[in-house]
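Reopening: structure tokens for the iron/sulfur cluster complex, inputs below.
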Amino acid sequence: MNNLLTKDEANLCLDILEKVYPDAKCELEHDSPFELLVATILSAQCTDVRVNKVTSEMFKKYNKPQDFANMDILFLEDLIKECGLFRNKAKNIKATSKVLLEDFGGEVPKTIKELMTLPGVGRKTANVVASTCFGVPAIAVDTHVFRVSNRIGFVDEKNVSNTEKALQKVIPKERWTKAHHLFIFHGRRTCFARNPNCETCEINHICKYYGDK
Ligand code: SF4
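Re-run output (same inputs, fresh job):
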């Protein structure tokens, strides 16, 4: 347990990261909950930059469930092929659009539980959409959140599911969503998977990984 941050240290760490990344937010561009839902499905094993490139063109013409529900699957695959895993993603976007029209009046549901009933929408995607679009406190654990939060010492967990639960215990609920964005920003800009910039990192005096070096 002594390899974990105290709650005070966790809050201090988030205070510092908030100063370092005052603009930390969702980097998937979107103008509606449905656009973010589609963008998040597309972001699996793909960079946000590439997703934004694809959606910036696609959403000009197609950005509602009605547009995708009956779209020719090969046409949809072609629209999103640059994002990788395009067959599966196309199938899920189409199926999710149909469910939204049939069961939710064409609107994206606001709760994590309902979002997770949509085809291809797992807990991470549901957390991203619910927290970003509807203000539901949530910590979506992606590869950056998992790596950075475990390194710093917020948690000491071996998998994503346990990491989310442990983070919820050490971080006050009102900071969950912001913490998610801060970990991602830090993971993309400083705490890289390989060769993190520990020497210049603003939280190296708190970080357990650095302390153990
Ligand atoms: S000190 Fe290194 S390992 Fe720790 S948060 Fe900073 S970059 Fe990541």
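The chain has two domains: 7-24+139-211, 33-134. The chain is about 60% helix and 0% strand. Marking as resolved unless the reporter disagrees.
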